[in-house]
What does this fold into?
Amino acid sequence: MSKKHHLLNRRHWIFDLDGTLTIAVHDFDAIRKELGIPEGQPIIETLESLPLKESRKKKKKLEDIEEILALNASPAPGLKKLMETLSSQNYFLGILTLNTKENAWITLNALGLTEYFTREFVIGRWCAEPKPSPHGITKLLNQWNVSASEALIVGDYLYDLQVGRAAKIATVHVDPSGDFAWPELTDISVCSLKELNDMLDL
It folds into this structure.
């Protein structure tokens, strides 16, 4: 049990989407290969740096790939129960994703979660400077009219933890492997959303 579990009392929760609320299926190396992006290069930043015509074409191709994945999204273990718990306690919920806002909503619909989220609180990669920039979190905090001390982010990857630190909100790392590779960026570590929900019930 983390000594920082009191941070879960914060009322404004921001979730990463793919690999956090969903079972991770994105093969980013395969996506890079399909888009002609060198191995290890950041996908979004690389597409942004291309000449306009090529950039538009490849962005559309990426969105098509992501849409198929979104339509077939599967919920991470414990997801629905966690949403029910947070909703019953009147928590405010947002999404910060490197996916597009449109595909994020398709994913939420596939997961049966649209009742728990409001479109304006779903921040995709073109809504604000993408992670690990804190701009998306700042946008959500401003929409909610709350300070960083009232929010946390739940994510499965380095960028989620970096963006949380940059925005000075609490961080929850969900890692099914239990390796927790970035402890210096993490306030609370859990292996699943079920474990996170169990902490709320204590």
